[in-house]
């Protein structure tokens, strides 16, 4: 290397001498020789030729030596090699400080597979393609070198962690676009570190930390997602669709390379009722709107990454360092409103809204796939919110943990008979005796904890498992009725609930129910089945069909939660129910004069249509006295009894009968 530099210096000096000689020949030759004009011209030509030839040979020699020097510092893929990198690092180390110096280390995934399967020529092309993508993200302060094999290093001066993050995101975008049509997809691991005031590193430490981060990133991406990425990758009219594993990898890279003070927010968002846009305006219009949304999301303040997740669902990662959750939610709401206004202004849709799930601070959890799942949960919950935005909070996390627990342990709990019956007595409006009871269910866990139905019923309804629980309850209730019959105890009417789930197959449900009734030889005069008002409104024909079947077997039907928010008076003329159960909301708080008037009129209408009346939520003597005075047939509530276990219910019935 030193010898080559001496040759280059010699060439430079020789070139200067030849140029001086050429100047002398051109301008001072006549003063040096005194031959005639012809001879002087001939000498001038010869000397100029010699000078020019000398310059050409000197330049050729210098170029040859420079190429030799450059080839010694250049890799086969046309970038700096390891020796050049070591020289660069030594130069930086010799500076007064290494502040604002960054190191990015890259390692390609799957090169061995390419070499072994398609040969080393294809492997070399694979490496060169990735190197070309690396050159696209370089700036004037970048130094790119191949560290060896499939590893690359970028030394970035006068930089920051944010700049390295943006460089990597640009690289990821370029690679993602390439992969949509590539025969062999590119995947890589990355680690980067910056030396700055509060985290000062020497060059060796920068390399070490970047290398550690890169191998953590590689371990994560190698742990089981590479094949899944290939299988899940998709391209649509709107653009590339990112898979869960790909998104998880990108989130891990951010978390792995970011500092503790960095806060990232993950957003998953969808268009409310997007199928209506497709159905009314057509798929072409729908795709144009989705394309617009995707491009518009890139303008979100401090957005790090955006992509289409699936269907009309989009994902975005936003740097919200220094922002509290409340301000982030306001930022999301503002951006959603701006987006809605722009869509309505650009396209002929009169209504547009986004549902957005928010996961604040990726550092809260290690598992990035769980973070995605949690954000998706928040997105689904956002559909229930007025503003269409929901953040994944500790309360939501607890609810989801309970939901998962219910789903995974329900079948085992059913087999172990962990579900136990509770009864809430109904009191006669005539003599205040116990005339019937509503059958309720509690889940008594193996650890002794008892869960109320609000903790598990809705979950079981969502996943279609409530049918098994309902028939479990029916059978246990019928077994109790048989035991009472065998003890020759006077029968007590039981009210049992019918889940809305069963209206999907009323023939199957009623057949199975009647089979169990026949199995235990139950006197159907002592059975009432409760159907909620909301279930009736949504499934009117199915409910009336079920009532018709059950009436044929002398089974009575009660409308539960009457008046809980639907246009109930309009349904009174058509309902085939035997009993109407007034919702407890009528008795919430103090019973006002207007409240009394409303109840009196409802009672009057129900009595005239021949319906029995039950009021639930009776908690005060004032309410009980009023309802009895107005002719309520049965009263149910904490004023009389809370839900009690089977043994306590039997004792309560005995005591009431003794007292009468």
What is this entry, summarized?
The chain is of the alpha/beta class and 660 residues long. The chain has four domains: 2-72; 78-223, Reverse transcriptase/Diguanylate cyclase domain (Alpha-Beta Plaits); 226-392, Alpha-Beta Plaits (2-Layer Sandwich), CATH 3.30.70.270; 412-659, TIM Barrel (Alpha-Beta Barrel). Helices cover 52% and strands 19% of the residues.
List the helices and strands and how they pair.
Layout: H1 2-32, H2 37-72, H3 82-93, E1 101-109, H4 111-118, H5 120-136, E2 142-148, E3 151-156, H6 161-179, E4 187-195, H7 203-222, H8 226-232, E5 234-235, E6 240-241, H9 244-257, E7 264-271, H10 274-281, H11 283-297, E8 303-310, E9 313-319, H12 325-346, E10 354-360, H13 368-382, E11 389-391, H14 394-415, E12 419-428, E13 434-444, E14 450-451, H15 457-462, H16 466-486, E15 493-497, H17 506-520, E16 527-532, H18 533-538, H19 540-551, E17 556-562, E18 579-582, H20 593-608, E19 612-616, H21 621-629, E20 634-636, E21 644-645, H22 646-659
Parallel strand pairs: 10-11, 13-15, 15-16, 16-17, 17-18, 18-19, 19-20
Antiparallel strand pairs: 1-3, 1-4, 2-3, 5-6, 7-9, 7-10, 8-9, 12-13, 12-20, 12-21, 13-14
Description:
The protein is of the alpha/beta class and 660 residues long. The chain folds into 4 domains: 2-72; 78-223, 2-Layer Sandwich (Alpha-Beta Plaits), CATH 3.30.70.270; 226-392, 2-Layer Sandwich (Alpha-Beta Plaits), CATH 3.30.70; 412-659, TIM Barrel (Alpha-Beta Barrel). It is built from 22 helices and 21 strands. The protein has an 8-stranded mixed beta barrel with strand order 12-13-15-16-17-18-19-20, surrounded by 5 helices. It has a 5-stranded mixed beta sheet with strand order 8-9-7-10-11. A hairpin with a 2-residue loop joins β2 (142-148) and β3 (151-156). α7 (203-222) packs antiparallel against α9 (244-257), α9 packs across α13 (368-382) and α16 (466-486) packs parallel to α17. Residues 225-235 have low confidence and may be disordered.
């Amino acid at each position: 290397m030193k010898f080559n530099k001496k040759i280059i210096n010699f060439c430079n000096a020789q070139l200067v001498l030849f140029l001086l000689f050429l100047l002398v020949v051109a301008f001072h030759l006549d003063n040096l020789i005194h031959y005639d004009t012809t001879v002087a011209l001939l000498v001038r030509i010869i000397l100029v030729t010699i000078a020019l030839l000398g310059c050409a040979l000197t330049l050729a020699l210098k170029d040859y030596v420079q190429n030799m020097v450059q080839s010694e510092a250049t890799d086969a893929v046309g970038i700096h090699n390891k020796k050049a990198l070591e020289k660069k690092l030594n130069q930086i180390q010799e500076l007064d400080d290494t502040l604002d110096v960054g190191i990015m280390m890259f390692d390609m995934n799957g090169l061995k597979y390419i070499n072994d399967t398609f040969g080393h020529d294809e492997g070399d092309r694979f490496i060169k393609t990735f190197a070309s993508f690396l050159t696209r993200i370089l700036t004037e302060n970048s130094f790119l070198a191949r560290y060896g094999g499939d590893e690359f290093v970028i030394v970035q001066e006068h930089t920051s962690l944010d700049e390295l993050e943006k460089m990597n995101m640009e690289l990821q975008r370029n690679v993602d676009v390439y992969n949509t049509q590539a025969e062999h997809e590119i995947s890589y691991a990355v680690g980067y570190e910056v030396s700055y005031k509060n985290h000062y590193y020497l060059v060796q430490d920068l390399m070490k930390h970047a290398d550690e981060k890169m191998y953590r990133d590689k371990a994560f991406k190698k742990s089981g997602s590479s094949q899944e990425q290939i299988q899940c990758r998709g391209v649509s009219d709107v653009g590339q669709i990112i898979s869960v594993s790909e998104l998880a990898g990108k989130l891990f890279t951010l978390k792995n390379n970011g500092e503790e003070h960095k806060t990232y927010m993950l957003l998953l968002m969808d268009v409310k009722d997007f199928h209506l846009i497709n159905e009314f305006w057509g798929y072409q219009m729908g795709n144009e709107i989705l394309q617009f949304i995707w491009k518009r999301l890139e303008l979100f303040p401090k957005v790090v990454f955006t992509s289409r997740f699936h269907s009309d669902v989009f994902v975005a990662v936003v740097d919200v360092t220094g922002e509290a959750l409340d301000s982030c939610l306001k930022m999301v709401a503002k951006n959603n409103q701006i987006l809605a206004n722009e869509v309505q202004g650009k396209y002929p849709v009169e209504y547009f809204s986004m549902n957005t799930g928010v996961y604040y601070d990726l550092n809260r959890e290690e598992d990035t796939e769980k973070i995605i799942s949690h954000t998706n949960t928040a997105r689904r919950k956002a559909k229930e919110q007025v503003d269409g935005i929901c953040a994944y909070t500790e309360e939501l996390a607890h609810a989801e943990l309970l939901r998962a627990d219910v789903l995974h342990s329900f079948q085992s709990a059913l087999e172990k008979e962990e579900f136990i019956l509770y009864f809430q007595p109904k009191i006669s409006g005539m003599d205040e005796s116990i005339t019937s009871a509503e059958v309720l269910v509690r889940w008594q866990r193996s650890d002794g904890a008892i869960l109320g139905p609000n903790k598990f019923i809705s979950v079981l309804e969502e996943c279609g498992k409530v049918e098994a629980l309902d028939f479990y309850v029916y059978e246990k209730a019928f077994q109790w009725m048989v035991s009472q019959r065998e003890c020759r105890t006077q029968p007590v009417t039981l009210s049992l609930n019918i889940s809305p789930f069963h209206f999907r197959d009323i023939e199957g449900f009623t057949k199975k129910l009647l089979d169990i009734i026949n199995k235990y030889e139950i006197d159907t005069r002592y059975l009432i089945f409760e159907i909620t008002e909301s279930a009736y409104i949504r499934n009117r024909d199915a409910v009336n069909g079920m009532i018709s079947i059950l009436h044929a077997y002398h089974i009575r039907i009660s409308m539960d939660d009457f008046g809980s928010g639907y246009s109930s008076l309009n349904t009174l003329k058509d309902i085939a129910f035997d009993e109407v159960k007034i919702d407890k909301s009528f008795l919430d708080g103090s019973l006002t004069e207007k409240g009394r008037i409303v109840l009196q009129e409802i009672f009057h209408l129900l009595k005239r249509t021949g319906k029995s009346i039950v009021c639930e939520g009776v908690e005060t003597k004032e309410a009980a006295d009023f309802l009895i005075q107005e002719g309520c047939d049965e009263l149910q509530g904490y004023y009389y009894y809370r839900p009690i276990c089977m043994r306590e219910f039997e004792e309560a019935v005995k005591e009431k009968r003794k007292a009468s």
